[in-house]
Design brief:
The complex is a heterotetramer of chains A (331), B (361), C (517) and D (332). Chain C has 517 residues and is an alpha/beta fold. Chain C is built from 17 helices and 24 strands. Chain C has 3 domains: 18-256, Rossmann fold, CATH 3.40.50; 264-350 and 437-517, P-loop containing nucleotide triphosphate hydrolases (Rossmann fold), CATH 3.40.50.300; 364-434, no CATH class. In chain C, the strands form 6 sheets. Chain C has a 6-stranded mixed sheet with strand order 6-9-10-3-11-12, with helices on both faces. In chain C, strands 18-21-22-15-23-24 form a 6-stranded mixed sheet, sandwiched between helices. A 4-stranded antiparallel sheet of chain C has the order 2-1-4-5, with helices on one face. The longest helix of chain C is centred in the last third of the chain and has 16 residues, at 450-465. Chain D is mostly helical. Chain D has helices at residues 9-39, 46-71, 79-93, 105-127, 133-152, 162-169, 177-195, 197-214, 219-245, 256-266, 278-297, 302-321, and strands at 171-172, 175-176. A two-stranded antiparallel ribbon of chain D has the order 1-2. Classes of the chains: A mainly alpha (331), B alpha/beta (361), C alpha/beta (517), D mainly alpha (332).
């Protein structure tokens, strides 16, 4: 049954009070501001940090995380969560490494397609069986890890001839790492497609109020399955980037990217309850998270303090970037 | 979504155009030439030690060893930890390599076999001096690279076999044992288990009742051991663990099951607690691997090459990838290993290869 | 408006239980309250009437401390007070039953009644269930309710929950030595007529030991239960009427400022189109809560279904939109058999649905008017697979204009609009495609004021005239009788009778009620 | 079909659904237990049942804590960090090989208090900084791990405190002291949930937070209190792990965050809040432990174990959800 809602805090005209335009704009740019502030802080700590080479390395490093977060952002916007992206990316690295010798250049699209299909299956399970996405993807995470272990024989699969994926390691115009450019392209492409088509309102409606969306005839189920499918494809593409970087595939290779990816989404200011947010925000969030993961130890913060700082900064960053006027109740 | 559609489209076309027009290059602009060996003043050398985390005794002693060496040459070691996260390790390495790499010396513990190749290729491209330890795929050889000076590891097959034999001996040559495997996706885990299998072949009286992974973790070993103990009951005479942490977890499980002292336990790594346990007889055997030495020696080799006291081309092929000396520690010799004995002279450029037990097979 | 310098005694009668003087509240761009005066005497039931947007809800919120007025004074029993929170208001003996129920569904009735003022039922943070049960029972006894205090709230019927609400509000007696002031905000909007009678009996009992402010959009109810009525318009009090002898028309005139026709019982402008086959035809439709439903609706016809809670009429309606599964029967649109596995199929068949729960099911609050309006019909706003922003804007503006939806712009979040305007956006959603054939209206006027209602009624008429078939689950029997060409009465999951409802031959509500129970 | 007077149809559904939901996990537990019992004779031995219950102790305590948070509709990922910090704290305060401390019970209490402090920190970040609990607790977890690493300082603290060690070893009625502690925690948790304002309000916050506000209840202190309570349970969990392992490990809480959420959810607590409870979670914990243990006992390959577990968890939830499916149900 529907919970009787006494009053939606957001429904009050009173929210207009804290909504003068400049402040609104500011919240919109908060993720970017947080990013710049972090770069500035790291530069103060270690002036060497602010060199083109160093920043280029950050961009290259962040690429897989950006792609992972971009896909999962769609699911979060729909009000769900995807905990299986990292495990799926790990499995995809194994598959890619196994198939590269036979399929060559075709291996990349095939792996992305397979990952998309696996994502879609999870979406189907979520939609048809009515299991919360948290549970479906938690289960999916274990299952995909197991499959990756079995397929790879619990070992690393080396890529001897990495020429089909080597293009990702090139530099565009000598400065921009191809992987970063591709990550940007993926974000831009998905964002543009979503923005230009009815998908934008469908996704937001699903995230804000699934039942209202359904009763308006929005294809809620298809949108969700689609989101899972894209998320899977993104995991597959992130896996391609990882393989091109690691020259191998491993059953646990990307597992540790799960929480950073979710953190990237939330730090970007996308509401974890769904509806409000965007892929661009996740892009900024992924860069912030990468800077924290890589930047802190590089500028010489000891490991124990690094973790403490990471925890503190990430909480503060979310506090700054979340647009509270769009989210009624913080759980 | 705040960013309008038009700028998005513009951005896409721009990046596409950039890709098409500017062409692509193999390297980021500004990548330096590989440093010429021996060009560095000792004070200019930058020492980096990278391990998984500071929260286990073995790796903590590694970093401490690195610090001690750095201090001995008047430098400091940059301590990096990546929390057992392969991607984070790569990210740190590429960030380090994006800085000044001219006199960079890295002593790295790759998270898994798969992580070694990108580290090596990155360091090679940037001209940083690199020593790796433990994990490396068999077909990747330092001899093929200019600045990857050496790869150091312990002979996992041999240690697995040694403790397997010791275990067989202590249970009187016959009876059931259970095996606790490490993280399945690592060479160390696989080699050590292969060693156990070799040992089982020779000791036909010993029967492997069950094998499960406990991921090198003390806590997981505790639960798995408890379950296996109830599954196999009194048939379990011995427990073979792929590292000491798991062996210590198994010891706790035995104590909780009221079977402490009745089941023999062996492990690998010689962490202080395990050595104490061997000394007191709670554990049967372990195999030494010396974290303090490993932390120092990698930097020492790199430092010697960077400062020109050692030429890469002069290093014997056998020393480019080698097994380090290791010892089976039993109750008899445990007292000798109670304190790690790292001699500063081990790190003299003339002595850095003193502990080579043999080339990597 | 300036605060009166000095409070003069109004009458020689006892001090009013509650008095409001010159209350002002600004929101950006809106003056919600523009100097409202209000007097609630002791032991009286005061009606508060006004169109949506007249400032009723802001006034009520100010009275319970949810809104801080910019200027003006509130006097409780002659004493000026500042109300900063609900607790503050409760301490002064003012409590409110909110329009949408404010009960925690997963707690027991007793806990809900005592929520926030557990008193002796909680000692040092520890519950004493027996005391709690006793205290709650006392409250329920006061209003003569037979609910088990330890029943979970979400297992109670709506009317019972309303009783729990009133019992809860009465708890404020514990905080104040004086008779409390109880505010009932639209308490009848979702009740069936029998339940309303019970509620009115309660209100009359309440008067014995409390003052009541009763807010309803149903003027006949206001006149029925209240002693006096205060009318608000554009944030000001425009009049006060003693109910004895007053007629709805008079109140209505005060509310909208001129003589409006209060009756929504428009004559049907065009009779149903006599086509060869009905627009909608269902035969033997069965589902979990209804059986063997036969129903024909011709193009241009409005068919109302009436029935009490649990009669299954909502589910029939939802089944026609593909939300409720059916187990047997067939549905034909214009003679063609269709199946409705989901809402998409229903939309594709030209069926539209306006749900009863507007806030949670009808609209997506944080999204803009334009997005809410165009959520369904893509062809109308797209060029190929892409949204054509100009096309969409033009389309939306046209419909905002056509339905005279009052909104600052098409990009305003719909939750900022008043209820009537929200409902019009929801209706517009189905109209913009121009291909609507059957409209299912589930309580389309719930919570709307008279002005907004009559606009909805006019719209329904207009659509019918254009050949749209309509199934109406009306808010009241009067509404059903007034609007429908035919009325189906449902009871216990079956259609028990069908009553023709032509102009000039309208049945009386009593005839229908007989069949419903 | 009889119509219950005055009840609207969806409500009837949910009433039927409640019964199904409450019955689902215990039924699943019985089924899974029976299947393993048939497949493996060792599994059904008394020893093994003891072993399962013993192994469930720590997870049960952690799940107790997380259940209160889930009941509010929040989520808590801080267990790993808080347990690590508390494990190090207790191992450095009771008799150990690193220093001369020997505070015994006081040391244990200090570790639990530290857990409270971390929980409080999560709660404050939630209500003051308005950071969603997912991120707030993730951050606190990182802080906890950092603090633990600081205290670890390179040398493993081994405990020699006889009492703490005996918790894992000594038995009463065939079960270890730790198991009895866990049972006491479940009882305590149940009492808190049933008989205290804190517990009932946590439940109510998950049901309809805004109603509490309208009723004049200040919700924020209760939210902080719930996180603090959860922190206390994690702190105790860290102590218990230390007792089991005989040493303070930074990784003491590894994996407990997701396992506890899984256990709670499998037991029937909804992530959206307002449903479930301690007893549900207790069933969930046993179910998860039966599964883990059973898979080893019947000899499923270690590679597949995680996968089978994941599959069964999804299946268990699906089975519990199917009876109450509705077409317009919102599933997040």
């Amino acid at each position: 049954m529907s919970t009787p809602v006494a009053m939606q805090p957001v429904a009050e005209p009173a929210t207009g009070r804290n909504g003068p335009r400049p402040a609104k704009r500011l919240t919109g740019f908060m993720p970017l501001i947080a990013l710049v502030a972090l770069v500035a802080a790291l530069t103060v700590a270690d002036p060497d940090f602010l060199t083109p080479r160093s920043l280029t390395a950050v961009a290259r490093t962040a690429a897989p995380l950006i792609v992972l977060a971009a896909g999962a952002t769609l699911i979060v916007l729909c009000g769900g969560i995807d905990l299986s992206i990292a495990a799926l990316a790990s499995l995809s690295t194994v598959l890619l490494a196994l198939w590269l010798p036979n399929l060559g250049g075709m291996a990349t699209p095939v792996v992305i397609a397979v990952a998309a299909a696996i994502g879609a299956v999870q979406g189907l399970a979520h939609v048809l069986l009515r299991i919360p996405s948290f549970i479906v993807t938690l289960g999916g995470m274990s299952i995909l890890s197991a499959v990756a272990l079995v397929v790879s024989g619990a070992g690393t699969v080396r890529v001897v001839d990495d020429s089909p994926v080597k293009w990702l390691e090139l530099y565009v115009g000598g400065y921009v790492p191809m992987s970063a450019a591709m990550a940007l392209l993926v974000v831009a492409l998905i964002a543009a497609v979503v923005k230009a088509t009815p998908l934008h309102s469908w996704i937001s409606a699903t995230g804000y109020s699934e039942s209202a969306a359904r009763l308006a005839g929005t294809p809620v189920d298809l949108v969700k399955i689609g989101a899972f499918c894209v998320s899977g494809a993104c995991a597959g593409f992130a896996a391609v980037m990882l393989v091109s970087r690691q020259f191998s595939g491993g059953p646990t290779m990307a597992d540790n990217l799960l929480l950073p990816a979710v953190a990237a989404i939330v730090v970007g200011g996308t509401a974890i309850t769904g509806g409000h947010g965007s892929l661009w925000r996740s892009l900024a969030g992924a860069l912030v998270v990468t800077l924290l993961r890589v930047g802190l130890p590089i500028v010489g913060v000891p490991s124990a303090y690094e973790q403490i700082l990471y925890g503190v900064i990430i909480v503060v960053a979310v506090a700054l970037t979340l647009d509270w006027s769009k989210v009624s109740i913080i759980k | 979504m705040r960013i309008a559609f038009r700028p998005t489209a513009a951005l896409i076309s721009l990046s596409l155009a950039a890709a098409a027009l500017a062409g692509c290059s193999e390297q980021a602009a500004g990548d330096g030439d590989p440093a010429a060996a021996g060009a560095c003043k000792p004070a200019d050398v930058k020492l980096v030690g990278q391990v998984r985390n500071e929260s286990n005794p073995y790796e903590a002693s590694w970093l401490a060893g690195g610090d001690a060496f750095a201090k001995s040459v008047g430098l400091t070691q940059q301590r990096l930890t990546y929390g057992g996260d392969s991607t984070k390790q790569q990210e740190q390495i590429s960030q380090i390599l994006a800085g000044d790499t001219k006199c960079l010396v890295m002593n790295v513990l790759p998270n898994g076999d798969s992580d070694t190749a990108p580290i090596v290729k990155g360091a090679d491209k940037a001209g940083a001096f690199l020593v790796t330890q433990w994990n490396k795929p068999a077909d990747l050889n330092p001899a093929d690279y200019k600045t990857w000076i050496s790869h150091i590891t312990y002979n996992g097959v041999e240690s697995g076999k040694q403790i397997g034999d010791a275990l067989a001996k202590s249970i009187g040559g016959s009876g059931g044992i259970i095996a606790l495997q490490g993280v399945l996706d690592t060479a160390a885990a696989k080699d050590r288990f292969a060693g156990l299998q070799a040992s089982l072949k020779e000791n036909s009286g010993v029967q492997l009742l069950d094998q499960q992974t406990a991921n090198f973790s003390r806590a997981e070993a505790l639960t798995v051991t408890k379950t296996l103990l109830t599954k196999h009951g009194d048939k379990v005479k011995g427990i073979w663990a792929a590292n000491d942490d798991m062996a210590l977890g198994a010891l706790e499980a035995l104590q909780q099951a009221g079977r402490a002292g009745k089941v023999a336990v062996v492990g690998i790594d010689a962490v202080p607690d395990a050595v104490t346990a061997v000394q007191s007889g709670a554990m049967t055997a372990t195999v030494s691997s010396d974290g303090t030495w490993q932390g120092g020696i990698g930097l020492a080799i790199g430092f010697c090459v960077a400062t020109g006291k050692l030429e890469v081309k002069d290093i014997a092929a056998d020393n480019r990838a080698f097994f380090a000396e290791q010892f089976l520690i039993t109750k008899d010799n445990a007292a000798d290993f109670a304190q790690p004995k790292t001699n500063p002279s081990d790190f003299d450029c003339a002595n850095v290869f003193k502990r080579v037990a043999g080339p990597l097979k | 408006m300036s605060v009166p310098a000095e409070r003069e005694p109004t009458t020689s009668a006892p001090v009013p239980a509650l008095e409001v003087r010159g209350l002002v509240k600004h929101y950006p761009g809106v003056k919600a309250l523009d100097g409202v005066d209000l007097v609630v005497r002791q032991h009286e039931v005061l009606g508060l009437a006004g169109e949506n947007g007249a400032g009723k809800s802001t006034l009520l919120k100010a009275l319970v401390g949810l809104v801080t007025p910019d200027a003006g004074e509130i006097y409780v029993r002659g004493e000026a007070v500042k109300l900063r929170s609900v607790v503050d208001a409760a301490n002064h003996g003012i409590g409110m039953v909110f329009q949408e129920q404010s009960l925690v569904p997963n707690l027991t009735a007793a806990e809900n009644i005592l929520l926030g003022s557990e008193g002796a039922a909680v000692r040092r943070g520890v519950y004493r269930w027996d005391v709690m049960r006793r205290l709650a029972q006392e409250q329920l006894d006061k209003i003569g309710s037979k609910i088990d205090p330890l029943a979970r709230t979400d297992t109670l019927s709506f009317a019972d929950r309303q009783m729990v609400e009133i019992a809860k509000v009465l708890r404020i007696e514990q905080r104040s030595q004086h008779p409390p002031v109880i505010i009932l905000d639209e308490p009848t909007s979702v009740l069936e007529s029998k339940e309303i009678e019970t509620l009115f009996a309660q209100i009359r009992r309440l008067r014995e030991f409390a003052s009541v402010v009763f807010v309803s959009h149903r003027l006949d109810e206001v006149l029925d239960v209240c002693d006096r009525v205060t009318v608000l318009r554009s944030g000001q009090s425009v009049g006060e009427v003693a109910t004895a002898g007053a007629v709805p028309r008079e109140l209505h005139r005060m509310m909208i400022g001129s003589t409006g026709s209060d009756d929504h019982y428009h004559e049907n402008a065009a009779g149903p189109v006599e086509a060869e086959q009905p627009r909608l035809s269902i035969r033997g439709l069965s589902g979990s809560s209804f059986r063997d439903i036969d129903l024909d609706v011709a193009a241009g016809e409005i068919v109302a279904i009436v029935g009490v809670h649990g009669s299954g009429r909502e589910d029939v309606c939802r089944a026609l939109f593909g939300i409720e599964p059916t187990t047997a029967g067939e549905i034909r649109m214009d003679g063609k058999k269709i199946s409705l596995p989901n809402t998409r199929a229903a939309c594709a068949a030209g069926i539209g649905y306006v749900p009863a729960e507007r806030k949670t099911e009808g609209m997506v609050g944080p999204m803009s008017v334009a997005e809410n309006m165009t959520l369904t019909k893509q062809k109308a706003r797209c060029a190929g697979p892409f949204v054509a922003p100009k096309k969409q804007a033009g389309l939306v503006d046209r419909w905002i204009d056509r339905l005279s939806i009052r909104t600052p712009s098409r990009d305003t979040p719909i939750q900022r609009l008043s209820g009537g305007n929200q409902q019009k956006v929801v209706l517009a959603r189905w109209l913009i495609g121009g291909d609507i054939r059957l409209l299912l209206l589930d309580h389309p006027t719930r919570g709307l004021d008279i002005g907004a209602r009559s606009e909805v009624y006019r719209l329904m008429r207009e659509l019918a005239a254009n050949g749209v078939a309509t199934v109406l689950l009306a808010d009241s029997l009067e509404e059903a009788i007034g609007m429908a060409d035919r009325i189906l009465v449902m009871n216990d999951g079956r259609v028990v009778t069908e009553v023709a409802c032509p102009n000039g031959g309208k049945p009386s509500p009593l005839d229908l009620v007989k069949e419903m129970v | 079909m009889t119509v219950e007077s005055g009840a609207a149809v969806p409500r009837r559904n949910s009433r039927r659904g409640t019964a199904f939901r409450d019955a689902g996990p215990p039924v699943a537990l019985v089924v899974i237990f029976s299947v393993f019992a048939v497949l493996s004779p060792q599994f059904r031995s008394i020893d093994n049942v003891q072993n399962i219950v013993d192994a469930a102790a720590v997870l049960a305590v952690v799940t107790c804590g997380i259940t209160f948070v889930l009941m509010m509709g929040s989520i808590d990922l801080s267990a790993a960090g808080v347990m690590g910090a508390s494990a190090l704290t207790v191992s450095l305060l009771v008799a150990n090989n690193r220093n001369d401390n020997d505070f015994g019970l006081v040391g244990i209490a200090a570790a639990v208090v530290l857990g409270c402090a971390f929980g409080c920190l999560s709660g404050l970040a939630l209500v003051l900084l308005k950071v969603p609990s997912f991120m707030a607790t993730l951050g606190v977890s990182a802080i906890g791990l950092g603090v633990a690493t600081l205290m670890f300082a390179g040398v493993q603290p081994n405990i020699s405190d006889a009492m703490l060690k005996s918790w894992a070893i000594e038995r009463f009625l065939g079960l270890s002291y730790l198991t009895w502690i866990a049972a006491a925690c479940i009882l305590l948790g149940w009492l808190v949930q049933r008989y205290t304002r804190l517990g009932r309000y946590a439940f109510a916050i998950g049901g309809a937070e805004e109603v509490l506000t309208l009723s004049g209840v200040k919700v924020k202190p209760y939210k902080v209190a719930v996180f603090t309570l959860a922190g206390a349970f994690y702190g105790l969990g860290g102590v218990m792990v230390t007792s089991q392992l005989g040493a303070g490990l930074v990784q003491a809480g590894n994996g407990y965050d997701f396992s506890a959420i899984t256990a709670a959810v499998v037991g029937g607590t909804l992530l959206t809040g307002g449903r479930g409870g301690i007893l549900h979670s207790a069933v969930g914990v046993v179910l998860v432990m039966v599964l883990t243990n059973g898979l080893v006992q019947v000899g499923v390959s270690p590679y597949w174990q995680g996968g089978v577990e994941g599959l069964i968890v999804v299946a268990a939830v699906a089975a519990a959800v199917i009876p109450q499916r509705r077409r317009n149900q919102v599933v997040k």
